[in-house]
Amino acid sequence: MVVDSALDGLVMIDQGGCILMANHRAEVMFDYEGVGMEGMMIASLVPERFRDGHGRLMKSYMRHPEAREMARQQEIFGQRRDGGEFPAEIGLTPVRNGEEVQVLATITDISARKAAQASLELALKEKTALLNEVHHRVKNNLQVISSLLNLQTRSAPPEAVAVLVECQNHVRAMALIHQLLYEHGDFSRIHVGLYLERLTQLLSGSASESGVRVRCRGMEVAVYLGMQRAIPCGLLVNELVTNALKHAFPGRRGTVEVALERAEDGRCRILVSDDGVGIPESVQLGEVSSLGFRLIPILVGQLKGVASLLRPEAGGGCVEIAFSDEPENQE
Known about the structure:
Layout lengths: L8 E5 L5 E4 L1 H6 L21 H13 L4 E2 L6 E4 L5 E13 L2 E10 L1 H45 L2 H27 L5 E2 H17 L3 E6 L6 E2 L1 H21 L6 E9 L5 E7 L16 H13 L2 E5 L6 E7 L8
Parallel strand pairs: 8-10
Antiparallel strand pairs: 1-2, 1-6, 3-5, 4-5, 5-6, 7-9, 10-11, 11-13, 12-13
């Protein structure tokens, strides 16, 4: 018979649930090879704990038979002759034989698929645990480095303290990435707004001593970056805020703002602005002797963005970083 060459099990039943025909694959699947299944009740192929429910569902189906899959919302199990069970997928097709409606069930044993899925889930769980541990350890190691730098500032000469503090801020910016990855369990991307908000909180500690306030705006915007671009993004903001704190407010109070926006074209913008003394016309990004301003074009390139130096008419200074948050293959 043609049905015996089918790769799936095929079972035909009448309206009472009696098996009229079963192909060879079905007999092998349910362990009835050489015995035959004709004349058996279909309920005998269902685990006992499901039989009551199966009977009600079969009667309901027979009132309005149609071609469809069985039980899309829950798992289905078949029962072999020895009582063993296996997960299955079953499709139902009504077949009219004169006035009588018969149903052809197409049965697929998905044990191998389920085993492969369980193996993948286990591998993913192990990988997640490993990544979690890696980020936790990296974060702890970076915090140790930050603490060592902090200790060093206590005995360093005044001219070296500022350099050590800048290095400490760089380390904190990178450690914060690993902290957020560890906290949220999503190792593929970082919520930029949450990251920048936490970063500016760290930078606010040194700013408060000089009477300068660091604030955030728009941090709720849904912008995400992979780790490879989140690190230069954080270092960029760290450099720009540190530079504003250092040069924009000589002997006076003021405010530094870090804003996150999404433009109408979908691109993202980070704006670091201040209401300080303004940026001299002679200053251009990447063309200043200070390490911070020379780093900015490099970090912008790693972010795959574009930096613009703005001089608002109302005074102060502003650096705009425009970039796309579309994921990239290497991330």
